[in-house]
Amino acid sequence: MTTPIITVEGITKSFGDVHALTGVDLEVEPGTVYGLLGPNGAGKTTTVRVLTTLLKPDAGRATVAGYDVVSQAAELRTAIGLAGQYAAVDEILTGRENLEMVGQLYRLSTAEARSRADEILERFDLAYAGDRPVKTYSGGMRRRLDLAASLVGRPQVLFLDEPTTGLDPRSRIGLWEFIERLVEGGTTLLLTTQYLEEADRLADRIAVIDKGTVIAEGTSDELKGRIGGDVLELQIANPENIPAAMAAVAGMCCGEANLDDDGETIRVPVESAVGTITDAVRRLDAAGVQLVDIAIHRPTLDDVFLTLTGEHVTQETNGNGELVGAGRGRRSRG
Amino acid sequence: MTAVTERPNTSPGNRIAWEIRDALVITRRNLFKYVRVPTLLIFSTVQPIMFVLLFAFVFGGAIALPGNLDYIDFLMPGIFIQTSIFGSTNTGIGLAEDMNKGLIDRFRSLPMSRSAVLAGRTVSDSVRNLFVVFLMTGVGYLIGFDFQNGFFSAVFAIALVLIFGYAFTWIQATIGLAIKDVESVQAASFVWVFPLTFASSAFVPIESMAGWLQWFARNNPITHAVNGARYLVLGEPWGSASDVWITLLWSGILLAVFIPLAISNYRKAV
Protein backbone atom coordinates (compact mmCIF):
# COMPACT_ATOMS: atom_id res chain seq x y z
CA MET A 1 0.00 0.00 0.00
CA THR A 2 1.32 3.42 -0.95
CA THR A 3 1.61 6.29 1.50
CA PRO A 4 -1.58 8.33 1.53
CA ILE A 5 -1.22 11.84 0.08
CA ILE A 6 -3.96 13.20 2.32
CA THR A 7 -4.35 12.03 5.90
CA VAL A 8 -6.94 13.41 8.28
CA GLU A 9 -7.09 12.25 11.89
CA GLY A 10 -9.79 13.34 14.27
CA ILE A 11 -10.21 16.88 12.94
CA THR A 12 -12.77 18.97 14.82
CA LYS A 13 -13.90 22.54 14.22
CA SER A 14 -16.60 24.56 15.93
CA PHE A 15 -17.91 28.03 15.23
CA GLY A 16 -19.35 29.09 18.56
CA ASP A 17 -22.13 26.60 19.30
CA VAL A 18 -22.09 25.17 15.80
CA HIS A 19 -20.01 22.01 15.68
CA ALA A 20 -19.09 21.96 12.01
CA LEU A 21 -16.69 19.03 12.30
CA THR A 22 -17.03 16.57 15.15
CA GLY A 23 -14.18 14.25 14.21
CA VAL A 24 -13.26 13.60 10.59
CA ASP A 25 -10.87 10.82 9.56
CA LEU A 26 -9.81 10.28 5.96
CA GLU A 27 -7.03 8.76 3.91
CA VAL A 28 -6.59 9.46 0.23
CA GLU A 29 -4.22 7.52 -2.01
CA PRO A 30 -2.08 9.47 -4.48
CA GLY A 31 -3.42 9.70 -8.01
CA THR A 32 -7.00 8.90 -7.03
CA VAL A 33 -10.23 10.88 -7.02
CA TYR A 34 -11.89 11.07 -3.64
CA GLY A 35 -15.45 12.25 -3.19
CA LEU A 36 -16.89 13.82 -0.05
CA LEU A 37 -20.64 13.33 -0.33
CA GLY A 38 -23.18 14.94 1.95
CA PRO A 39 -25.99 17.45 2.29
CA ASN A 40 -25.54 21.16 3.00
CA GLY A 41 -24.14 21.79 6.44
CA ALA A 42 -22.61 18.32 6.71
CA GLY A 43 -19.07 19.67 7.02
CA LYS A 44 -17.76 19.16 3.48
CA THR A 45 -16.66 22.74 2.89
CA THR A 46 -15.21 23.06 6.39
CA THR A 47 -13.11 19.93 5.75
CA VAL A 48 -11.82 21.40 2.48
CA ARG A 49 -11.10 24.73 4.16
CA VAL A 50 -9.04 22.99 6.84
CA LEU A 51 -7.12 20.96 4.25
CA THR A 52 -6.37 24.05 2.14
CA THR A 53 -5.12 26.02 5.20
CA LEU A 54 -8.01 28.52 5.10
CA LEU A 55 -9.18 27.40 8.54
CA LYS A 56 -7.27 26.08 11.52
CA PRO A 57 -8.76 22.97 13.07
CA ASP A 58 -9.62 23.04 16.80
CA ALA A 59 -8.18 19.57 17.30
CA GLY A 60 -6.79 16.69 15.31
CA ARG A 61 -4.10 16.46 12.68
CA ALA A 62 -4.06 16.56 8.90
CA THR A 63 -1.39 16.43 6.23
CA VAL A 64 -1.53 17.10 2.51
CA ALA A 65 1.36 16.09 0.24
CA GLY A 66 3.38 15.42 3.39
CA TYR A 67 2.88 18.89 4.86
CA ASP A 68 1.02 19.55 8.09
CA VAL A 69 -1.97 21.86 7.54
CA VAL A 70 -1.09 24.02 10.54
CA SER A 71 2.67 23.99 11.05
CA GLN A 72 3.65 23.79 7.36
CA ALA A 73 0.81 25.80 5.85
CA ALA A 74 3.05 27.93 3.63
CA GLU A 75 4.80 24.90 2.06
CA LEU A 76 1.50 23.09 1.72
CA ARG A 77 0.06 25.91 -0.40
CA THR A 78 2.74 25.36 -3.04
CA ALA A 79 1.43 21.82 -3.55
CA ILE A 80 -2.32 22.40 -3.85
CA GLY A 81 -4.94 23.98 -6.05
CA LEU A 82 -8.40 25.04 -4.89
CA ALA A 83 -11.60 25.87 -6.70
CA GLY A 84 -14.35 26.90 -4.32
CA GLN A 85 -18.11 26.95 -4.45
CA TYR A 86 -18.32 30.06 -6.55
CA ALA A 87 -16.21 30.94 -9.51
CA ALA A 88 -13.48 32.94 -7.79
CA VAL A 89 -12.29 34.85 -10.81
CA ASP A 90 -11.98 38.58 -11.40
CA GLU A 91 -14.78 39.74 -13.68
CA ILE A 92 -12.94 42.85 -14.84
CA LEU A 93 -9.90 40.94 -16.07
CA THR A 94 -9.91 38.75 -19.16
CA GLY A 95 -9.69 34.99 -18.81
CA ARG A 96 -6.02 35.09 -19.79
CA GLU A 97 -5.21 37.89 -17.32
CA ASN A 98 -6.86 35.93 -14.53
CA LEU A 99 -4.71 32.89 -15.23
CA GLU A 100 -1.54 34.98 -15.62
CA MET A 101 -2.23 36.66 -12.30
CA VAL A 102 -2.67 33.33 -10.54
CA GLY A 103 0.48 32.04 -12.24
CA GLN A 104 2.48 35.02 -11.01
CA LEU A 105 1.12 34.50 -7.51
CA TYR A 106 2.32 30.88 -7.74
CA ARG A 107 5.59 32.72 -8.38
CA LEU A 108 6.13 31.70 -11.95
CA SER A 109 8.09 34.20 -14.00
CA THR A 110 6.01 36.56 -16.16
CA ALA A 111 6.92 34.62 -19.30
CA GLU A 112 6.17 31.26 -17.68
CA ALA A 113 2.87 32.55 -16.35
CA ARG A 114 1.93 33.69 -19.84
CA SER A 115 2.74 30.41 -21.58
CA ARG A 116 1.04 28.46 -18.79
CA ALA A 117 -2.10 30.58 -19.22
CA ASP A 118 -2.13 29.91 -22.98
CA GLU A 119 -1.66 26.20 -22.43
CA ILE A 120 -4.48 25.99 -19.90
CA LEU A 121 -6.92 28.12 -21.91
CA GLU A 122 -6.35 25.73 -24.78
CA ARG A 123 -6.88 22.70 -22.60
CA PHE A 124 -10.14 24.02 -21.18
CA ASP A 125 -11.53 25.11 -24.56
CA LEU A 126 -11.42 28.74 -23.49
CA ALA A 127 -8.75 29.98 -25.91
CA TYR A 128 -11.40 31.61 -28.12
CA ALA A 129 -12.62 33.69 -25.17
CA GLY A 130 -9.24 34.23 -23.53
CA ASP A 131 -9.07 37.95 -24.31
CA ARG A 132 -12.62 38.77 -23.29
CA PRO A 133 -13.43 40.15 -19.84
CA VAL A 134 -14.79 37.39 -17.62
CA LYS A 135 -18.02 39.32 -17.04
CA THR A 136 -19.00 38.33 -20.61
CA TYR A 137 -18.61 34.60 -19.79
CA SER A 138 -21.50 32.23 -19.14
CA GLY A 139 -21.80 30.50 -15.76
CA GLY A 140 -20.32 27.30 -17.16
CA MET A 141 -17.36 29.15 -18.69
CA ARG A 142 -16.64 30.89 -15.38
CA ARG A 143 -16.58 27.57 -13.55
CA ARG A 144 -14.27 26.21 -16.20
CA LEU A 145 -11.95 29.21 -15.83
CA ASP A 146 -12.06 28.76 -12.06
CA LEU A 147 -11.07 25.11 -12.48
CA ALA A 148 -8.37 26.16 -14.91
CA ALA A 149 -6.99 28.67 -12.39
CA SER A 150 -6.70 25.95 -9.74
CA LEU A 151 -4.39 24.03 -12.08
CA VAL A 152 -2.00 26.85 -12.94
CA GLY A 153 0.48 25.86 -10.22
CA ARG A 154 0.59 22.20 -11.36
CA PRO A 155 -0.73 21.08 -7.98
CA GLN A 156 -0.07 17.60 -6.60
CA VAL A 157 -3.45 17.74 -4.89
CA LEU A 158 -6.49 19.52 -6.22
CA PHE A 159 -9.51 20.46 -4.10
CA LEU A 160 -12.84 21.14 -5.80
CA ASP A 161 -15.64 22.27 -3.53
CA GLU A 162 -18.99 21.52 -5.16
CA PRO A 163 -17.64 22.19 -8.62
CA THR A 164 -21.00 21.86 -10.40
CA THR A 165 -23.49 23.26 -7.89
CA GLY A 166 -25.77 25.75 -9.57
CA LEU A 167 -24.93 24.65 -13.11
CA ASP A 168 -27.57 23.44 -15.55
CA PRO A 169 -27.41 19.70 -16.37
CA ARG A 170 -25.68 20.22 -19.69
CA SER A 171 -22.91 22.41 -18.27
CA ARG A 172 -22.56 19.94 -15.42
CA ILE A 173 -21.88 17.04 -17.76
CA GLY A 174 -19.47 19.24 -19.72
CA LEU A 175 -17.58 20.11 -16.56
CA TRP A 176 -17.39 16.45 -15.54
CA GLU A 177 -15.55 15.76 -18.78
CA PHE A 178 -13.00 18.44 -17.94
CA ILE A 179 -12.55 17.10 -14.44
CA GLU A 180 -12.00 13.60 -15.82
CA ARG A 181 -9.47 14.97 -18.26
CA LEU A 182 -7.49 16.81 -15.64
CA VAL A 183 -7.12 13.81 -13.34
CA GLU A 184 -5.84 11.67 -16.20
CA GLY A 185 -2.47 13.32 -15.59
CA GLY A 186 -2.22 11.74 -12.15
CA THR A 187 -3.26 14.68 -9.97
CA THR A 188 -4.93 13.60 -6.77
CA LEU A 189 -8.38 15.14 -6.55
CA LEU A 190 -10.60 15.63 -3.55
CA LEU A 191 -14.04 16.90 -4.47
CA THR A 192 -17.15 17.60 -2.47
CA THR A 193 -20.62 17.15 -3.86
CA GLN A 194 -24.27 16.88 -2.93
CA TYR A 195 -24.95 14.63 -5.89
CA LEU A 196 -24.54 10.88 -5.64
CA GLU A 197 -24.48 10.72 -9.42
CA GLU A 198 -21.50 13.08 -9.52
CA ALA A 199 -19.54 11.17 -6.87
CA ASP A 200 -20.41 7.92 -8.65
CA ARG A 201 -19.14 9.19 -11.97
CA LEU A 202 -15.97 10.92 -10.83
CA ALA A 203 -14.73 9.39 -7.60
CA ASP A 204 -12.70 6.23 -7.01
CA ARG A 205 -13.65 6.30 -3.36
CA ILE A 206 -16.41 8.14 -1.55
CA ALA A 207 -16.83 9.26 2.04
CA VAL A 208 -20.38 10.02 3.10
CA ILE A 209 -20.27 12.87 5.56
CA ASP A 210 -23.03 13.97 7.90
CA LYS A 211 -23.15 16.23 10.94
CA GLY A 212 -19.42 16.78 10.86
CA THR A 213 -18.26 13.20 10.66
CA VAL A 214 -17.73 10.42 8.13
CA ILE A 215 -20.58 7.92 8.38
CA ALA A 216 -19.60 5.59 5.54
CA GLU A 217 -16.61 5.14 3.27
CA GLY A 218 -15.82 2.97 0.30
CA THR A 219 -15.89 2.66 -3.45
CA SER A 220 -19.03 3.58 -5.28
CA ASP A 221 -19.85 -0.13 -5.72
CA GLU A 222 -19.30 -0.86 -2.05
CA LEU A 223 -21.62 1.96 -1.05
CA LYS A 224 -24.21 0.89 -3.59
CA GLY A 225 -23.94 -2.61 -2.19
CA ARG A 226 -25.03 -1.15 1.10
CA ILE A 227 -27.80 1.03 -0.20
CA GLY A 228 -28.85 -1.09 -3.18
CA GLY A 229 -28.13 -0.21 -6.80
CA ASP A 230 -30.50 0.69 -9.62
CA VAL A 231 -34.02 -0.67 -9.28
CA LEU A 232 -36.63 -1.28 -11.95
CA GLU A 233 -40.07 -0.24 -10.77
CA LEU A 234 -43.23 -1.57 -12.41
CA GLN A 235 -46.88 -0.92 -11.96
CA ILE A 236 -49.30 -3.19 -13.75
CA ALA A 237 -52.91 -2.74 -14.74
CA ASN A 238 -54.52 -5.77 -13.14
CA PRO A 239 -53.49 -6.78 -9.59
CA GLU A 240 -54.33 -10.41 -10.38
CA ASN A 241 -51.40 -10.46 -12.77
CA ILE A 242 -48.84 -9.47 -10.13
CA PRO A 243 -47.53 -13.01 -9.56
CA ALA A 244 -47.20 -13.56 -13.31
CA ALA A 245 -45.40 -10.25 -13.72
CA MET A 246 -43.01 -11.01 -10.87
CA ALA A 247 -42.21 -14.36 -12.39
CA ALA A 248 -41.62 -12.78 -15.79
CA VAL A 249 -39.02 -10.27 -14.57
CA ALA A 250 -37.44 -12.48 -11.90
CA GLY A 251 -34.71 -13.83 -14.12
CA MET A 252 -33.68 -10.47 -15.56
CA CYS A 253 -30.60 -9.83 -13.56
CA CYS A 254 -29.32 -10.27 -10.18
CA GLY A 255 -32.03 -10.49 -7.60
CA GLU A 256 -35.55 -11.45 -6.67
CA ALA A 257 -38.46 -9.26 -7.64
CA ASN A 258 -40.39 -8.04 -4.66
CA LEU A 259 -43.61 -6.23 -4.01
CA ASP A 260 -43.59 -2.79 -2.41
CA ASP A 261 -45.46 -2.11 0.84
CA ASP A 262 -48.27 -0.46 -1.12
CA GLY A 263 -48.95 -3.80 -2.84
CA GLU A 264 -48.87 -2.16 -6.27
CA THR A 265 -45.26 -1.51 -7.20
CA ILE A 266 -42.96 -4.36 -8.17
CA ARG A 267 -39.24 -3.72 -7.66
CA VAL A 268 -36.44 -5.67 -9.30
CA PRO A 269 -32.77 -4.90 -8.81
CA VAL A 270 -31.01 -4.36 -12.13
CA GLU A 271 -27.43 -3.86 -13.13
CA SER A 272 -27.37 -1.60 -16.15
CA ALA A 273 -29.93 0.82 -17.44
CA VAL A 274 -29.09 0.00 -21.04
CA GLY A 275 -31.78 -2.17 -22.65
CA THR A 276 -33.34 -2.97 -19.30
CA ILE A 277 -36.69 -1.37 -19.93
CA THR A 278 -37.02 -2.92 -23.39
CA ASP A 279 -36.14 -6.31 -21.98
CA ALA A 280 -38.69 -5.97 -19.19
CA VAL A 281 -41.43 -4.83 -21.57
CA ARG A 282 -40.78 -7.80 -23.87
CA ARG A 283 -40.91 -10.25 -20.99
CA LEU A 284 -44.12 -8.76 -19.63
CA ASP A 285 -45.70 -8.67 -23.06
CA ALA A 286 -44.85 -12.33 -23.59
CA ALA A 287 -46.49 -13.12 -20.25
CA GLY A 288 -49.58 -11.17 -21.29
CA VAL A 289 -49.23 -8.56 -18.52
CA GLN A 290 -50.34 -4.97 -19.18
CA LEU A 291 -48.18 -2.18 -17.77
CA VAL A 292 -49.32 1.10 -16.26
CA ASP A 293 -45.90 2.50 -15.48
CA ILE A 294 -42.28 1.44 -15.76
CA ALA A 295 -39.19 3.32 -14.58
CA ILE A 296 -35.64 2.83 -13.43
CA HIS A 297 -34.96 4.29 -10.03
CA ARG A 298 -31.36 5.25 -9.42
CA PRO A 299 -30.29 5.64 -5.80
CA THR A 300 -30.08 9.27 -4.69
CA LEU A 301 -28.36 11.02 -1.85
CA ASP A 302 -31.65 10.64 -0.04
CA ASP A 303 -31.53 6.84 -0.43
CA VAL A 304 -27.96 6.84 0.89
CA PHE A 305 -29.02 8.83 3.92
CA LEU A 306 -32.16 6.87 4.48
CA THR A 307 -30.12 3.68 4.53
CA LEU A 308 -27.25 5.01 6.63
CA THR A 309 -29.05 7.27 9.07
CA GLY A 310 -32.72 6.37 8.77
CA GLU A 311 -33.36 10.06 8.04
CA HIS A 312 -34.45 11.80 4.88
CA VAL A 313 -32.62 14.82 3.60
CA THR A 314 -34.94 17.58 2.51
CA GLN A 315 -34.62 18.12 -1.20
CA GLU A 316 -34.65 21.69 -2.32
CA THR A 317 -36.02 22.32 -5.76
CA ASN A 318 -36.07 25.37 -7.93
CA GLY A 319 -39.15 26.69 -9.76
CA ASN A 320 -38.84 24.07 -12.50
CA GLY A 321 -38.90 21.23 -10.03
CA GLU A 322 -35.24 20.47 -10.67
CA LEU A 323 -33.14 19.43 -7.78
CA VAL A 324 -30.87 22.28 -6.79
CA GLY A 325 -29.45 20.99 -3.58
CA ALA A 326 -30.02 18.86 -0.60
CA GLY A 327 -29.89 19.82 3.03
CA ARG A 328 -31.79 19.55 6.23
CA GLY A 329 -33.89 22.59 5.53
CA ARG A 330 -30.94 24.72 6.55
CA ARG A 331 -29.21 26.74 3.86
CA SER A 332 -25.58 26.92 4.76
CA ARG A 333 -22.24 26.13 3.30
CA GLY A 334 -21.54 22.42 3.60
CA MET B 1 1.49 16.26 -14.95
CA THR B 2 4.45 16.74 -12.68
CA ALA B 3 4.45 18.44 -9.36
CA VAL B 4 6.44 21.59 -9.01
CA THR B 5 9.25 20.64 -6.72
CA GLU B 6 11.55 23.55 -7.37
CA ARG B 7 10.51 26.60 -5.46
CA PRO B 8 12.34 29.86 -5.11
CA ASN B 9 14.50 29.67 -2.03
CA THR B 10 13.28 31.55 0.96
CA SER B 11 16.21 33.56 2.23
CA PRO B 12 15.02 36.77 3.91
CA GLY B 13 16.11 39.05 1.04
CA ASN B 14 14.41 36.83 -1.45
CA ARG B 15 11.30 36.71 0.68
CA ILE B 16 10.95 40.48 0.71
CA ALA B 17 11.51 40.59 -3.04
CA TRP B 18 8.70 38.06 -3.51
CA GLU B 19 6.42 39.94 -1.15
CA ILE B 20 6.93 43.11 -3.17
CA ARG B 21 6.30 41.28 -6.44
CA ASP B 22 3.11 39.67 -5.08
CA ALA B 23 1.89 43.08 -3.92
CA LEU B 24 2.63 44.59 -7.35
CA VAL B 25 0.70 41.81 -9.09
CA ILE B 26 -2.32 42.64 -6.93
CA THR B 27 -1.86 46.41 -7.33
CA ARG B 28 -1.86 46.00 -11.09
CA ARG B 29 -4.98 43.86 -10.95
CA ASN B 30 -6.80 46.48 -8.85
CA LEU B 31 -5.77 49.36 -11.11
CA PHE B 32 -7.04 47.48 -14.17
CA LYS B 33 -10.50 48.15 -12.82
CA TYR B 34 -10.12 51.89 -13.35
CA VAL B 35 -8.83 51.38 -16.87
CA ARG B 36 -11.52 48.87 -17.84
CA VAL B 37 -14.46 50.59 -16.19
CA PRO B 38 -14.07 54.25 -17.25
CA THR B 39 -17.34 55.25 -15.59
CA LEU B 40 -15.85 54.22 -12.25
CA LEU B 41 -12.91 56.56 -12.79
CA ILE B 42 -15.19 59.40 -13.89
CA PHE B 43 -17.60 59.11 -10.98
CA SER B 44 -14.92 58.60 -8.36
CA THR B 45 -13.22 61.83 -9.54
CA VAL B 46 -16.38 63.89 -10.04
CA GLN B 47 -17.11 63.93 -6.33
CA PRO B 48 -13.80 65.48 -5.17
CA ILE B 49 -13.97 68.08 -7.95
CA MET B 50 -17.54 68.87 -6.97
CA PHE B 51 -16.36 69.37 -3.38
CA VAL B 52 -13.72 71.85 -4.54
CA LEU B 53 -16.25 73.85 -6.53
CA LEU B 54 -19.04 73.74 -3.94
CA PHE B 55 -16.85 74.75 -1.03
CA ALA B 56 -15.08 77.45 -3.01
CA PHE B 57 -18.22 79.08 -4.41
CA VAL B 58 -20.86 78.29 -1.77
CA PHE B 59 -18.91 78.73 1.48
CA GLY B 60 -16.02 80.80 0.18
CA GLY B 61 -17.82 84.12 0.53
CA ALA B 62 -19.10 83.41 4.04
CA ILE B 63 -15.78 82.47 5.58
CA ALA B 64 -13.63 85.39 6.56
CA LEU B 65 -9.93 84.59 6.84
CA PRO B 66 -7.34 86.71 8.57
CA GLY B 67 -4.81 88.48 6.35
CA ASN B 68 -7.02 88.52 3.25
CA LEU B 69 -6.10 84.96 2.27
CA ASP B 70 -8.21 83.72 -0.61
CA TYR B 71 -10.54 80.94 0.57
CA ILE B 72 -9.47 78.70 -2.33
CA ASP B 73 -5.86 78.75 -1.06
CA PHE B 74 -7.08 77.90 2.44
CA LEU B 75 -9.43 75.23 1.11
CA MET B 76 -7.20 73.21 -1.21
CA PRO B 77 -4.86 71.62 1.38
CA GLY B 78 -7.92 70.77 3.48
CA ILE B 79 -9.71 69.22 0.57
CA PHE B 80 -6.61 67.20 -0.40
CA ILE B 81 -6.65 65.61 3.04
CA GLN B 82 -10.42 65.15 3.00
CA THR B 83 -10.25 63.46 -0.41
CA SER B 84 -7.50 61.07 0.55
CA ILE B 85 -9.36 60.08 3.72
CA PHE B 86 -12.70 59.67 1.96
CA GLY B 87 -10.84 57.75 -0.77
CA SER B 88 -9.57 55.29 1.85
CA THR B 89 -13.14 54.03 2.35
CA ASN B 90 -12.77 52.26 -1.02
CA THR B 91 -10.13 50.01 0.52
CA GLY B 92 -12.51 48.28 2.91
CA ILE B 93 -15.25 48.08 0.30
CA GLY B 94 -12.90 46.58 -2.29
CA LEU B 95 -11.67 43.93 0.14
CA ALA B 96 -15.22 43.05 1.21
CA GLU B 97 -16.18 42.66 -2.46
CA ASP B 98 -13.23 40.36 -3.10
CA MET B 99 -14.16 38.35 -0.05
CA ASN B 100 -17.77 37.93 -1.14
CA LYS B 101 -16.70 36.80 -4.60
CA GLY B 102 -14.48 34.10 -3.13
CA LEU B 103 -11.33 35.78 -4.45
CA ILE B 104 -9.84 36.18 -0.98
CA ASP B 105 -10.25 32.41 -0.46
CA ARG B 106 -8.38 31.80 -3.68
CA PHE B 107 -5.59 34.22 -2.75
CA ARG B 108 -5.31 32.69 0.71
CA SER B 109 -4.89 29.22 -0.78
CA LEU B 110 -2.02 30.39 -3.02
CA PRO B 111 1.62 30.32 -1.95
CA MET B 112 1.72 34.13 -2.04
CA SER B 113 2.64 36.47 0.77
CA ARG B 114 0.01 37.03 3.47
CA SER B 115 0.36 40.80 3.20
CA ALA B 116 0.21 41.12 -0.60
CA VAL B 117 -3.55 41.37 -1.06
CA LEU B 118 -3.71 44.16 1.53
CA ALA B 119 -0.56 45.91 0.38
CA GLY B 120 -1.76 45.73 -3.23
CA ARG B 121 -5.16 47.11 -2.30
CA THR B 122 -3.85 49.97 -0.15
CA VAL B 123 -1.22 50.91 -2.73
CA SER B 124 -3.65 50.90 -5.65
CA ASP B 125 -6.08 53.04 -3.66
CA SER B 126 -3.26 55.47 -2.95
CA VAL B 127 -2.37 55.59 -6.64
CA ARG B 128 -5.98 56.54 -7.31
CA ASN B 129 -5.72 59.19 -4.58
CA LEU B 130 -2.64 60.64 -6.26
CA PHE B 131 -4.48 60.83 -9.56
CA VAL B 132 -7.43 62.59 -7.91
CA VAL B 133 -5.15 65.06 -6.12
CA PHE B 134 -3.55 65.99 -9.46
CA LEU B 135 -6.94 66.47 -11.01
CA MET B 136 -8.16 68.64 -8.13
CA THR B 137 -5.00 70.70 -8.29
CA GLY B 138 -5.75 71.37 -11.96
CA VAL B 139 -9.29 72.45 -11.16
CA GLY B 140 -8.02 74.51 -8.22
CA TYR B 141 -5.57 76.35 -10.47
CA LEU B 142 -8.42 77.24 -12.82
CA ILE B 143 -10.23 79.02 -9.99
CA GLY B 144 -7.29 80.83 -8.47
CA PHE B 145 -5.36 78.32 -6.31
CA ASP B 146 -1.58 78.45 -6.23
CA PHE B 147 1.16 76.48 -4.45
CA GLN B 148 2.93 79.44 -2.84
CA ASN B 149 6.14 77.80 -1.63
CA GLY B 150 7.63 76.47 -4.81
CA PHE B 151 7.89 73.09 -6.45
CA PHE B 152 9.53 71.04 -3.70
CA SER B 153 7.13 72.18 -1.01
CA ALA B 154 4.29 71.25 -3.34
CA VAL B 155 5.78 67.76 -3.80
CA PHE B 156 6.19 67.38 -0.02
CA ALA B 157 2.62 68.58 0.54
CA ILE B 158 1.21 65.95 -1.84
CA ALA B 159 3.47 63.28 -0.31
CA LEU B 160 2.18 64.18 3.16
CA VAL B 161 -1.42 63.93 1.95
CA LEU B 162 -0.77 60.50 0.45
CA ILE B 163 1.11 59.14 3.46
CA PHE B 164 -1.65 60.22 5.85
CA GLY B 165 -4.32 58.81 3.51
CA TYR B 166 -2.32 55.58 3.22
CA ALA B 167 -2.46 55.12 7.01
CA PHE B 168 -6.24 55.44 6.80
CA THR B 169 -6.47 52.78 4.07
CA TRP B 170 -5.14 50.25 6.61
CA ILE B 171 -7.79 51.26 9.15
CA GLN B 172 -10.42 50.73 6.46
CA ALA B 173 -8.85 47.41 5.46
CA THR B 174 -9.17 46.24 9.06
CA ILE B 175 -12.82 47.32 9.14
CA GLY B 176 -13.66 45.82 5.74
CA LEU B 177 -12.18 42.42 6.61
CA ALA B 178 -13.95 42.37 9.98
CA ILE B 179 -17.42 43.35 8.75
CA LYS B 180 -17.37 41.56 5.35
CA ASP B 181 -20.85 42.56 4.14
CA VAL B 182 -20.25 45.14 1.39
CA GLU B 183 -23.09 47.50 2.24
CA SER B 184 -22.34 47.43 5.96
CA VAL B 185 -18.69 48.12 5.21
CA GLN B 186 -19.74 51.07 3.08
CA ALA B 187 -21.67 52.56 5.98
CA ALA B 188 -19.13 51.63 8.65
CA SER B 189 -16.20 53.15 6.83
CA PHE B 190 -17.95 56.49 6.31
CA VAL B 191 -19.77 56.94 9.58
CA TRP B 192 -16.70 57.98 11.59
CA VAL B 193 -14.67 59.52 8.77
CA PHE B 194 -17.29 62.17 8.02
CA PRO B 195 -17.52 63.88 11.44
CA LEU B 196 -13.80 63.44 12.03
CA THR B 197 -13.00 65.29 8.80
CA PHE B 198 -15.52 68.08 9.29
CA ALA B 199 -14.55 68.68 12.91
CA SER B 200 -11.08 69.70 11.78
CA SER B 201 -9.44 72.74 10.25
CA ALA B 202 -10.07 71.33 6.75
CA PHE B 203 -12.84 73.71 5.68
CA VAL B 204 -13.16 76.50 8.26
CA PRO B 205 -10.88 78.09 10.84
CA ILE B 206 -11.25 76.31 14.18
CA GLU B 207 -11.91 79.65 15.93
CA SER B 208 -15.31 79.82 14.19
CA MET B 209 -16.51 76.50 15.71
CA ALA B 210 -18.63 75.97 18.82
CA GLY B 211 -16.47 76.31 21.92
CA TRP B 212 -16.69 72.70 23.07
CA LEU B 213 -15.77 71.49 19.59
CA GLN B 214 -12.66 73.64 19.37
CA TRP B 215 -10.74 71.50 21.86
CA PHE B 216 -11.55 68.35 19.88
CA ALA B 217 -10.77 69.97 16.53
CA ARG B 218 -7.40 71.27 17.73
CA ASN B 219 -6.30 67.78 18.77
CA ASN B 220 -7.83 65.98 15.84
CA PRO B 221 -5.03 64.31 13.86
CA ILE B 222 -6.80 65.48 10.73
CA THR B 223 -6.28 69.09 11.82
CA HIS B 224 -2.55 68.44 12.14
CA ALA B 225 -2.49 66.84 8.71
CA VAL B 226 -4.40 69.74 7.15
CA ASN B 227 -2.22 72.30 8.89
CA GLY B 228 0.89 70.39 7.89
CA ALA B 229 -0.23 70.44 4.25
CA ARG B 230 -1.14 74.15 4.59
CA TYR B 231 2.30 74.89 5.99
CA LEU B 232 3.87 73.27 2.94
CA VAL B 233 1.47 74.93 0.49
CA LEU B 234 1.11 78.41 2.05
CA GLY B 235 3.76 78.73 4.76
CA GLU B 236 3.19 80.15 8.23
CA PRO B 237 0.98 81.07 10.05
CA TRP B 238 -1.40 78.61 8.39
CA GLY B 239 0.45 75.68 9.82
CA SER B 240 3.86 74.85 11.18
CA ALA B 241 6.66 72.39 10.68
CA SER B 242 5.58 70.65 13.88
CA ASP B 243 2.22 69.84 12.25
CA VAL B 244 4.14 68.01 9.53
CA TRP B 245 6.07 65.97 12.10
CA ILE B 246 2.98 65.24 14.19
CA THR B 247 1.18 64.05 11.04
CA LEU B 248 4.06 61.73 10.16
CA LEU B 249 4.06 60.45 13.73
CA TRP B 250 0.29 59.81 13.62
CA SER B 251 0.69 58.03 10.28
CA GLY B 252 3.42 55.85 11.76
CA ILE B 253 1.32 54.99 14.81
CA LEU B 254 -1.76 54.17 12.74
CA LEU B 255 0.30 51.96 10.41
CA ALA B 256 2.02 50.22 13.32
CA VAL B 257 -1.36 49.40 14.86
CA PHE B 258 -3.50 48.66 11.84
CA ILE B 259 -1.12 46.78 9.52
CA PRO B 260 -0.84 43.87 12.00
CA LEU B 261 -4.57 44.04 12.79
CA ALA B 262 -5.55 44.00 9.12
CA ILE B 263 -3.17 41.12 8.33
CA SER B 264 -4.50 39.17 11.29
CA ASN B 265 -8.06 39.72 10.04
CA TYR B 266 -6.96 38.61 6.58
CA ARG B 267 -5.46 35.39 7.93
CA LYS B 268 -8.70 34.63 9.73
CA ALA B 269 -11.06 35.82 6.97
CA VAL B 270 -13.77 33.25 6.36
The arrangement of helices and strands of chain A along the chain is EEEHEEHEHHHEHEHEEHEHEEHEHEE
- Rg of chain A over CA atoms, rounded to whole Å, is 23 Å
What's the helix count of chain B?
Answer: 11
Q: How many individual domains of chain A?
A: 2
Helix share, percent of chain A: 25-40%
Radius of gyration of chain B: 20 Å
Strand order of the largest sheet of chain A: 6-7-8-3-9-10
CATH H-level superfamily of the largest domain in chain A? P-loop containing nucleotide triphosphate hydrolases
Count of distinct strands of chain A: 16
Please write the CATH class name of the largest domain in chain A.
Alpha Beta
Which range does the strand content of chain A fall in? 25-35%
Please identify, by name, the CATH architecture of the largest domain in chain A.
Answer: 3-Layer(aba) Sandwich
How do the strands and helices of this protein lay out in sequence?
The complex is a heterodimer of chains A (334) and B (270).
Chain A: E1 6-15, E2 18-28, E3 33-37, H1 44-51, E4 59-64, E5 67-68, H2 73-77, E6 80-83, H3 95-105, H4 110-123, H5 139-151, E7 157-161, H6 169-184, E8 188-193, H7 196-202, E9 205-210, E10 213-219, H8 220-227, E11 231-236, H9 242-250, E12 258-259, E13 265-269, H10 276-286, E14 291-297, H11 301-309, E15 314-317, E16 323-327
Parallel strand pairs in A: 3-8, 3-9, 6-7, 7-8
Antiparallel strand pairs in A: 1-2, 1-4, 4-5, 9-10, 11-13, 11-14, 12-13, 15-16
Helix pairs in contact in A: 3-4, 3-5, 5-6, 8-11
Chain B: H1 12-36, H2 38-59, H3 71-100, H4 103-109, H5 116-142, H6 150-179, H7 182-191, H8 193-198, H9 211-219, H10 221-234, H11 241-268
Helix pairs in contact in B: 1-2, 1-5, 2-3, 2-5, 3-5, 3-6, 3-7, 3-10, 5-6, 6-7, 6-10, 6-11, 10-11
